[in-house]
Amino acid sequence: MLDRATILAERIARVAVWAGGAMLLFAAGLVTVDVLIRRILGITFTGADEISAYLFAISTSWAFAFVLIHRSNVRIDALYLVLPRIVRALLDTLALAALGAFMAYLSWRAWIAVETTVGMNAHSTTPLAIPLVVPQSLWFAGMALFMIVWALLMLRSLLALVTGDLATLGRIAGAQSLDEEVQEELGQHDLPRTRTGG
pTM, whole model, 2 decimals? Predict the structure, then answer.
């Protein structure tokens, strides 16, 4: 059941990361148009910098879950690679738990920001006067998706650790091997497969 839920979460995370990429492209286009209009016509497109900043923050948080599932985050693994397999498995579990704790705190603080914005009916202090609850809620949504995916992966990792399925734990929470990184770049990397049901 956990494996099926993780596959579904990966599909949702993939949609989110594609949407985030589209936001970045839109923001880049918006800034480009603003620069060209300013250069050619001498006028400024109001709010391009503000909108692009919101889109950058939102798209970044929407990518978190995808990065977690595909283990694309940066890890320093010089010592890790020479450690015994059981030690690596314990460190992988600890690293995943620590990442979740940090993101839980960050998500909590983001939620407080959203609640405060709603309570104050805050708007940006710019000519656009954008209700801040809109970008902040979308920013928080990415963190919420990350926490859901993290909970699934944490449960699956603990199950693998308890059952001694260290290979599965490594595919879920371990640092990517060189071969896996090459496959990722070639577009041949799928969601980590597991040998046991969860």
Answer: 0.81
